[in-house]
Amino acid sequence: MRHQLSLYLRLISIQLRSQMQFRVSFWTDVITTGLLNFSYFFSTYLVLQRFGSIAGWSVAEMAFLYGMIEISFGSMDMLFSGFDPDSFSRFIRQGLLDQVLLRPVSVALQIFGSAFVMRRLGRITQGALVLIFALVNLPVHWTPLKVGLLPVMWISQIAAMGALFMAGSTLTFWTVQRVEAINILTYGGVEVMSYPMTIYPRWLRGFFTYLIPFIFLNFYPALYILDKPDPLGLPAFSPFLAPLVGGVMLFLASRFWQVGLSHYQSTGT
Amino acid sequence: MSPIISVQHLYKRFKILQRRPGLGGALVNLLSPRYSEVSAVQDVSFELEEGEVVGYLGPNGAGKSTTIKVLTGLLVPTSGEVHINGKVPWLERERYVREIGAIFGYRSTLWWDLPVIDSLELLQPMYRIPAERFRSNLREFSRLLDLDSFLNTPVRSLSLGQRMRADLCAALIHEPRLLFLDEPTIGLDVIAKEHIRQFILHVNRQRGVTVLLTTHDLADVERLCERVMILDRGRLLFDGSLTMLNHRFESTWTLHVDFEVEYEDVSLPGMDPPVRQGLHAEYHFDHRQVTSAELITRLLEKFRIRDLEVRRPPLEETIRRIYREKLLIN
After folding, report:
1. What distance in Å separates residue A81's CA from the closest CA in chain B?
2. Where is the ABC transporter domain positioned along the sequence (chain B) (predicted)?
């Protein structure tokens, strides 16, 4: 395990080194992605200011939802860069998986180590600024449980969204081309989680509660931290389901990955 | 001693989606895909002893690469048994690939954007090579393969010959007992080819590495292999020594003769009339019926001759005949 970790860090450090070769373009990339993402939030902020609140959520409360997801998605996008279905399908098409299979190291570890897109720092920083804005403007009554819930949300969200990346990449073992449907789920899910779930129609909420239970990753923990009543009447433990959702999704995705890999090895696309 | 590679009744069939034309066709494809089956490898069996260098030959699409992919653990066969180093490649891939080296001539196994030395140094923790061994192997291979001048160049900027040398170093740095080479000299010039052949011979003799290689360049085979296997449309047509191959199939030899003076008739009784051009003549003969010595004696008795040369058909010609005539022997 320690060996695996040090090997992973070694692979990543090589990625970073080659990305830092072009310092200027690297930092302009970081800053533009940060600004671009921030402009989305800022336009929403301007609209919200006129209305004061949406579905009972103030601007600062919505900034909390949005900031959390932006940090998590940016982190996931960095950590799971190798599993981004767009780049992974290219990886398969170029036949690069064969050289991975020739190495005496787990394939997943090598894919994790094959890319680490530092530019995502821009999105993470932007999310962090929005989250700080939210926390400064919100009268949160902090308890140890609430403080502990923040990193748990972060990790669970990374795991759940990473699972979708992994599943999307696995599909390309069959299709070779990337599959649009799974991208819609990933990026759509991120969008949905950035706002209070109560603004969505019942069917969409149902989808993200029972099929892809994203509702427990951001919305319910946020209700708990911000001391807001549950408008949907789900069980009282709902705010604490995030790690379960993240863990189960990542577990299922890694099993699916194994199936896809054996399929690849028996067809040799 | 048990063989280091044992392949028994290996089959590999691929399913290929039959695409129907047009948008409607694409829709039908999605709903009821129609597959056709292609047999890439059919009932192939062979064994390799430790220390052998064996050429695996065949025309494009014969199934050479498919076989190599199965033997290196990249591909799972449809049926058949493979035991290499006592392991089944695709069942315990991670442990198995530690003991083999492999090169696919058409693609580098190194990290494209990294300098050669960084790539090689990454292999050390991957294969858990003791630092001492790694250093001494790197020193030896750099010297033999002349790597020093481009160790700090990214792989993508290397010439084909340099890249192949770097790849060879990478394939052997963890001291594998077996080396699989798929077209190791493809696209290289004569000097680069010779360099690579010498290196392969060196690791075979000095380190006892067993080598299985596919190639289109029969000079590789003549230089490196004592034994060849010939594959055509997935089936093994020949498995034996190069001498045996020559003996069994190279029947027509040619004797080139330059005469001192012009003769009206230079044919010999009982032989096909020669192909003539001025003072030059070519006699084609079956060396299993007439020896070249006998033929030369008969010619010298009748004519004044300036020069003689016996030519055996090139290996290429022999192998082409085997494909063409589907000569099957065991």
Report:
1. 17
2. 5-258
* B143/A111 Cα distance (integer angstroms): 33
Q: Which two tokens stand for residue B268?
A: 């010999």
CB atoms within 10 A of CB A184: 10
pLDDT, tens digit, 9 for 90 and up, residues B113-148: 889 999 999 999 999 999 999 999 999 999 999 999
Residue A129 lies in a domain: yes
Span B208-234, pLDDT tens digits:
999 999 988 888 888 999 999 999 889
Q: Identify the CATH homologous superfamily for domain B50-234+241-246.
A: P-loop containing nucleotide triphosphate hydrolases (3.40.50.300)
Residue ranges of domains in chain B: 50-234+241-246, 251-312
> In angstroms, rounded to a whole number, what is the distance separating the alpha carbons of residues A86 and A115?
12
Tokens of B132: 């001492």
Report the interhelical angle of A59-79 vs A121-137 (nearest 10°).
150
Other Cβ atoms within 10 Å of A266 Cβ, number: 15
Please report the ipTM that was assigned to this predicted complex: 0.82
At B252, list the tokens. 């027509």
What integer pLDDT is reported at residue B280 of this predicted model? Answer: 92
Partnered with residue B219 across adjacent β-strands are none
Inter-residue contact B282 to B274 (CB < 8 Å): yes
Reported confidence tier of residue A268, pLDDT bands at 50, 70, 90: low
Which residues 6+ apart lie within 8 Å of A105 measured at CB?
Answer: A4, A7, B94, B126
Return the H-helix or E-strand segment holding B257: strand B252-259
A22 domain residue, yes or no: no
Q: How far apart are CA A14 and CA A16, in angstroms?
A: 5
Residue pair A138/A64 in contact by the 8 Å Cβ criterion: yes
Test A265 with B66 for CB contact under 8 angstroms: no
Q: Is residue A88 part of a domain?
A: yes
CB contact residues (below 8 A), chain B span 72-131, against chain A = 72-76, 90, 93-95, 97-98, 102, 104, 107-109, 111, 113-114, 118, 122, 125-128
- The tally of domains found in chain A comes to 1
Helix, strand or coil, per DSSP, at residue B60: coil
* Subunit contact B14:A267, Cβ cutoff 8 A: yes
Kindly state whether A11 is in contact with chain B, defined as any CB-CB distance less than 8 angstroms: yes
Q: Give me the domain span that covers residue A95.
A: 2-15+28-267
Which residues of A are less than 8 Å from B111 in CB distance?
14
Mean pLDDT in residue range A105-124: 91
Chain B positions touching A98 (Cβ under 8 A) are 69, 74, 104, 107
